[in-house]
Amino acid sequence: MKRKFYHPEPTKAELNGPAYWKSLDDLQGNHQFQEWVNREFPDGADTMSDVDRRNFMKIMAASFGLAGVGVTGCRMPERKILPYTKQPEFLIPGVANYYSTSMPFGGENIPLVVETHQARPTKIEGNPSYKPNGGGTSTFSQVSILDLYDPDRARSHRDSSGKAISRADAESLIKDAASEFEGSTGEGLAFLATSSSSPTRAHLVSSLAAKFPKAIWAEHEGIDLSNPSKAVSALLQRPVRTVHHFDKAKRILSLDSDFVGYEGNATGNARAYAKGRKINSAKEATKMSRLYVAESNLSLAGANADHRLRMASTNIPAFAALVASHLVPSVKAPSGFSELEQQWAKECAADLLGHKGRALVVAGSHLAQEVHQVVVAMNEALEARGKTLEYVATDENKSTSIADLAAALEGNKVKTLVILGGNPAYDAPASVNWESAQAKAGKVIRLGYSEDETYSARSNWHAFIAQTHFLESWGDGRAWDGTYVPVQPMLAPLFGGMTEIELLARFLSKSVTDPHDQVRKTFEEISKKSDSRTFNKWLAEGILPGSAHTAVTTAFNKTVLDAIPSRFSPKVNFLNKDNLEVRFVPSAHNWDGRFANNGWAQECPHPITKITWDNAILISAKLAEELGGIIPDPWSMSGQVFGQDLNQLVRRTNEFNRGREITPIYQVTVDGVTVEGPLHVQPGIADYTLVLPLGHGRKTVGRVGKDSGFNFYPVRKSATSTSVGGVKISDTNRSYKLANTQEHWSQEGRAIIREGTADEYSKNPEFTSQMGMESHSPKLYPKIKDKETGKWREMTQQEKAMFVPRGNSAYTPPKYTEIEKKSDRFKLLIPGRYSPDGLFDQDLDNDEVSQTYHQQWGMVIDFNACIGCNSCVVACQSENNIPIVGKDQVLRGREMHWMRIDRYFSSDVYRNDGKFANDPKPDKRVIPDEVQVSFQSVACAQCELAPCESVCPVNATVHDEQGLNTMAYNRCIGTRYCANNCPYKVRRFNFLDWNKRDMGHFYEGPLGPAGVNELEQMQKNPDVSVRMRGVMEKCTYCVQRIQEAKINHKAKHPGSADVKVPDGTIKTACQQSCPTEAITFGDILDTESEVSKLKDSDRNYAVLGYLNIRPRTTYLSKIRNPNPAMPKAYPKPFARMEYDARYGHGLDANEMDYLGLPKGGDDHVHPVGSGNH
Amino acid sequence: MSASTTEIDKPDPAIMAKVKPGHIASRPLVENNRDYTWITDKICRIVEEKTPTWWWFCFAAACMTASFTVMGLIYLVSTGVGVWGLANPVNWGWAIVNFVFWIGIGHAGTLISAILCLLKQKWRTSINRAAEAMTVFAVVCAAIFPVFHVGRIWFAWFLFPLPNSNWLWPQFRSPLEWDVFAVSTYGTVSVLFWYMGMIPDLATIRDRATTRFRKFIYGLFSMGWRNANNHWRNFEAAYLLLAGLSTPLVLSVHTIVSFDFAVAQLPGWHTTIFPPYFVAGAIFSGFGMVLTLMLPLRSIYRLHDLINQQHIDNMCKITLATGTIVGYAYSMEFFIAWYGSNPYEGFAFINRAFGQYWWAYLTMISCNVISPQLFWFKAVRENPALVWIISIFVNVGMWFERFVIACTSLANDFMPSSWGYYSPSIVDIFTYFGTFGVFSVLFLLFVRFLPMMPMAEVKMVLPESDPHHGDDHH
Asked: 163-202 in B: which are within 8 Å (CB) of A?
């Protein structure tokens, strides 16, 4: 295939040639001759005169578009192509370029950096220049790149009949529609847009208001998070937004708020929150922050809480008042709460008060504005303002709601309706019948990304304008803190789409319609600088320093604050089986439904339920039992055999049948409207709350999102009222399969995720290493006699990496160069073999010394920082070309994620006899409701003594000199023995041709359609091979990034044998995307590297270390920070008590007391492994 | 026995004569005083007579069943291993179970032909040919699975140490690599042993042949056997040599197959008891299969005089003995799991017996440990129908043993988050049952075209062959 390549403008000498000329004019190279050339070769000459990157991108993208989409094989190249004679700037084949941009998302722009290969974006990363996020990203930003290559996106503009039209025609259609209103007040003109932080759009909106004062401008988001801002704005009487500083808060109370999950600025919040949780030594243990959460749904925030109270969302306002009553004197405590709840609120409030200026209260954005005002009052009482939170001034937004617009439409008052993006027919509140309202408009212009519900509801279409993806758009916006950020295109629109601001500008007949020029103009206004340098710097850095919103200093009006309680007297509702509440949450996969056709989004397991491709009605185990026992587990047994607790055989996964979650479909009726969905019993849900995740069950959607989940929008009356009471539920007698990636929720007392309390850690810093099988078996690493002091001592981390284990092994530790041997560092790195006297043989034979120094890679994952957000999972998928396999294959257990997050629940109702304390039906109930959650991100640990390597018959998986357990895909024949022998189960096998076949065609063999989807193919990272069927694959610490960094380093230091890449240069994809910086990667031989320092922590341990596999990825144990004054304050984390009881040193008196176990029955409590120390 | 040192230095034939092997058989090995001619006629007529109708029906049914395997494999290779029920964490399912099952079946053949030959067990003669054929065909069936279970069969030649320009060799530390050598050696020696033992009988059929074609074919395969003395001398020597060669193979093959599991570190796999336990299990299943095959053949061809109650009795007793060894191994595994105090190991065994695969474990125990115990009773051993049914139980039980070991250990190992459940797909099931077709096709062809019993050897155990009437070798 021939491809057009950019060729820089030829110099006159090149163009004319020094020796041959066509005429004297040619020889002279005069102007007329140049013009003649232009006439003769109009296209090429024109193109070549414009050398800026943007144009280049356009051309490149166009050619890629043609290459990828068109039937390239049938097309003759238009012109002759020329090879590079001079390398164009910024473009080196094989070397990625990184450009900053930002993703507009729910009214905030998330600053990003995008990796592009030859103008082809392949991977999204956070923009490290934007400090609040620090380079971290959410799963949504990670998956958004796949939408760019969505095979089902709209590929053309369309006219009223749905026929594809050219861009020029589309432009004239817009012009026609606009001309009707020319000179009018705009009566009958209406716009419906999504929330946006773009100042350019704000300009356009204000000029719209100026030109058409009577036009309606409405904004709508499927998931509306604006309540908190509105509440505070009302108090301060100016538009503000709350910016929280979780890193500065030592005590945090969250009222039904998933501030690290889906609330605004979740990524920044997660990063700040984790800062307060990270501890470097036992001394700092008590300094870590403490999180209290009262919530109905088990959110990510709740999963990370130190104290969590399950409470119906409808009771959260009353509970807010209860807590407030201890903080704000004027608030009265509502009656009706249980003793425990009152105690909980009291002690929590006391703890918050004890940390004035270092405490913070947040509330979920679905809660009523009054609740947020009470929260403001509480934060005022806690002196949080200016310390743990700020109220910053934002731009005013004068839009009306979709309900008002719908009313106007229903009243036939709208002649022309312009829908800018969004999908209102799907996600509008149920009280608004958008489809019928939309049909009442005279004509509709729709800017849309794909054929969706709003598109299929068309009847009065004037024009459908294909929208651009943000990666192919010019635009701007503001990050959460107000920092002004650009939206830069990585390539010209693949299908010639239009951006929102261009459409608006065209509609307003603006002189400047080009989005780039518009943005440039806005930038000049905001930065007050008009030079290209500042503009280019903004584009390059992706942020405009100093442009963040400023904090509002106006104090709250005392009387307004004091008046809050009078307007706020919530009652405690008593819910039961026949009077349930529903709580709507955004989809962890699709957000409001926008990522429904995105395979990465759909297949990324839900962080809590681990369900893929679907949503489900989440209910508590208690409700499940009351609904008539979807719990029976015929094989639940109790007792012991040979000291093994039979309780662990209970699948604890009641809905699972032969490895598949098969659940009944239930109907939920809210005010006469019925929706249905499968039930999923979820520990941690409030007893009588039905959690309904939105964003699934799209009807008009592409091939990927088809038949995925259930739509719960029809029962959501308004975008902000997300909890309702008086709901009924009934069985449909049908069942449904849910593709769940994790069946078993309990760790079964195994020392996999090791947990302790802050108090315990400060008293016994060694507790982590006192757990697990290895604490009972001979040490894996012997003590050595120090050469200098002659004393026996433990090996250092570096010495361990050099150590040849007893019994010998095929693994060869690294060897050193002469240069290294002469350096001072070498003293720290004592290579050699272990000898029986415990001495290391330092006198290496020269032959054994290789000429290159190899860094030894290792990784540490901090359980205290990991919040289980899944960002790493998608980042890894994006970086390493990991295919999606579809629901059917996930059901079979063949998901391909190299990195997964294991989510375990632990419960305090565990008792060693297999029964659950305080449970009326101890034999039946196998899912508890009160749980603690532990997350563990697992990828290949690069074991030094890798069990996978020794069993591969063809040497397809081998160790390299850097300690990486590498995969030679070409050598792999697929015996799968390696996967069987991997104790972490991180190897993934290509059972079928995931890459060459579309989902649904995997089983068709030679008869089915095969071939790579050319559009999706464009996303693939060219640095990583795409694996065929029959091949095993797994994480290799992003070896492509390591190699790239080494090559770059070597290029900078030519001739030097030193290829030691400085610490922190290489970031693995998972590490880079992690918003909490839970993952650290680096050279473990370097005593100064971050990873070495963490590995020296007393919290560091190897999961399943007793197997002597010596994993290079180790973990830092999880520290919880309970408040002993709280009711039901746990003496140890639940998982820890379970370990202690089963395999550890038995429970102590405190723990026995807590669990309600009879004292003196100690011998009964530790059946196995109560080894002596 | 009082013997001085000098007597030991110089063995006294009189004393040596006293050390004679005990007589297992009290009944004659060939009943009803059948003579040489009768035996020759009986065995040769099976091959020479018109093909019976039942054979055609069976052959057609077997071919059809075998086609399942062929179709299953075509689908597998063209589409991917995903057509089977495998998934993470159970990456080895029926394919490996079937492989071990079939390899195990073969062991009785080798044991009968090699070990019993060396131990001079005369009763082996009437069953060894069929048992050897069974071995060869079982190895054929077994070999299908490890070859086809790989993801990219077109690269399976990577398993062989072929010199190449990349200087890449197989990984000799992998038990799968050991399998390649163990199974191919086993297959080769088994074929040689089987074929070589057949040469005198093929010559007999050649001599009796009436058509040129038969004469030519059997002549070709009897390799010019002329019943000459030196032929017999060489034959006997070679036979003994191959018996000696095969004997360690009986032990080594299944030992190495057991290493596929034992060398891995998976709880439930990583146990030192596997080699002896697997060998015992293999012999157990092999004798089960011999009984399953021989009892119907005996009825169809009326071979009751050649395969008499004594043969059945002996085989039942071996089945009982090995079945009990297997049972001991099961209980010892449990004991060690408890004694080792390793929570992962302990769980693996509890899970086997009481977990989600309890039904497989129960099937295994009842078929392998309980059902053979009936062989303590003479009445059971003398009831061919009952023996046949129990032999089927043994086959079923041994398949389940491999399933229990392979699948339950994989399904629930170290990390509870990865626990799963394995169910076979329809392709798995068809491919497996198809191998019974493959086996039957081969066995039917064997019955039809090759001497089913070693006539020469059977004749050797007739009283006529022993002019001293069982008295000592004077």
From this structure: 168-171, 173-177, 180
Give A676-720 pLDDT, tens digit per residue: 999 888 889 998 999 999 999 999 888 888 888 999 999 988 766
Structure tokens at A552: 């509002």
Spatial distance between the Cα atoms of B281 and A76, rounded to a whole number of angstroms: 69
Which tens digit of pLDDT belongs to each residue from A125-145? 999 999 998 889 999 999 999
Please tell me whether the interface predicted TM-score (ipTM) of this complex is above 0.95. no
Neighbouring CB atoms inside 10 A of A875's CB total 29
On whether any CB of chain A is under 8 Å from the CB of B346, the answer is yes
Backbone angles phi, psi at A87, to 5 degrees: -65, 125
The number of angstroms, rounded, from the C-alpha of A1082 to the middle of its chain's C-alpha atoms is 23
Phi-psi region of A95 (alpha: psi -120 to 50; beta: other; left: phi over 0): beta
What are the pLDDT tens digits along chain B (474 aa)? 444 444 455 556 666 566 666 655 556 777 777 788 888 888 888 888 889 999 999 999 999 999 999 999 999 999 999 999 999 899 999 999 999 999 999 887 888 888 888 888 888 888 888 889 999 999 999 999 999 999 999 999 999 998 888 788 898 989 999 999 999 999 999 999 999 999 999 999 999 988 999 999 999 999 989 888 899 999 999 998 998 988 888 888 999 999 999 999 999 999 999 999 999 999 999 999 999 998 998 898 888 888 888 889 989 999 999 999 999 999 999 899 888 888 898 888 988 888 888 899 999 999 999 999 999 999 999 999 999 999 999 999 999 999 999 999 999 899 989 988 898 999 999 999 999 999 999 999 999 999 988 888 888 877 777 666 555 544
Q: Using CA atoms, how far apart are residues A613 and A9, in angstroms rounded to an integer?
A: 51
Cβ-based neighbours of A563, under 8 Å, separated by 6 or more: none
Chains A & B: contacts with CB separation below 8 Å: 235
Sequence-distant (6+) residues with CB within 8 A of A863 are A753, A755, A934, A935, A936, A1078, A1115, A1116, A1117, A1118
Distance, CA of A901 to CA of A871 (rounded, Å): 10
CA-based nearest residue to A712, from A614, A602, A579, A608: A614
Interface subset of A 1030-1059, CB within 8 angstroms of B: 1030-1032
Q: Cβ of A649 under 8 Å from any chain B Cβ?
A: yes
| SS3 call for A369 | helix
Residue of B nearest to A890 (CA): B87
Does A980 sit within 8 Å of B410, measured CB to CB? yes
For residue B200 the two structure tokens come to 């005198």
Query: Is the CB of residue B300 less than 8 Å away from at least one CB of chain A?
Result: no
Residues 6+ apart with CB under 8 A from A423: A222, A448, A452, A453, A454, A593, A594
Residues for chain A: how many in total? 1173
Question: Measured between beta carbons, which residues in chain B are less than 8 angstroms from residue A1168?
Answer: 341, 343, 346
The reply to whether A983 touches chain B by the CB within 8 Å rule is yes
Helix (H, G, I), strand (E, B) or coil at A461: strand
Kindly state whether A807 is in contact with chain B, defined as any CB-CB distance less than 8 angstroms. Answer: no
Peptide bond connecting A486 to the previous residue in cis, omega within 30 degrees of 0: no
- Measured distance CA(A290)–CA(A41) in Å, rounded: 71
- CA distance, residue A956 to nearest chain B CA (Å): 9
- Three-class SS of residue A486? strand
Residue A406 to residues A437, A561, A1039, Cα–Cα distance (Å):
6, 35, 54
H or E stretch including A887? Answer: helix A887-891
* Closest CA–CA distance from residue B413 to any residue of chain A (Å): 7
The answer, yes or no, to whether the previous bond of A515 is cis (omega within 30 of 0) is no
Residue B120, Cβ neighbours under 10 Å: how many? 8
DSSP 8-state secondary structure symbol assigned to residue A87: P
Contacts (Cβ under 8 Å, ≥6 apart) of A361: A252, A253, A254, A255, A323, A352, A375, A378, A379, A382, A384
